[in-house]
Amino acid sequence: MSNSSKAVVSFIVGAAVGVAVGYFLNSDKKDELVEKLKGQSEKLKEKWRKRKDQFHDELENELA
């Protein structure tokens, strides 16, 4: 695929993503989507905190 073909495909994909984001931000489901994303981000934060703490404890045990 040539560089110009890649650029056209990239533009089309970017435009499609932009349209989808714009649609959701202007729809009635925006609040529902935002709440779901907040919930998921909190779950991910907690998961990473637990893994960080576990890693920290394991590291302390190895160094002790």
**Shape verdict:** flat
Helix percent reads: over 70%
Q: Which stretches are poorly predicted, pLDDT < 50 over at least 5 residues?
A: none
Q: Compute the number of helices.
A: 2
**Structure class:** mainly alpha
Major beta sheet, specifics? none
Domains, number: 1
Averaged pLDDT = 87
Strand % is: under 5%
Give the beta-strand count. Answer: 0
**SSE sequence, one letter per element:** HH
Separation, N- and C-terminal Cα atoms: 56 Å
Radius of gyration: 21 Å
Topology at a glance:
Layout: H1 3-26, H2 30-63
Essential attributes:
single chain, membrane, YtxH-like protein, 64 residues, 91% helix, 2 helices, transmembrane, transmembrane helix, mainly alpha
What can you tell me about this protein's structure?
The protein has 64 residues and is an all-alpha fold. It is built from two helices and no strands. The chain has one domain. 0% of the residues are buried.
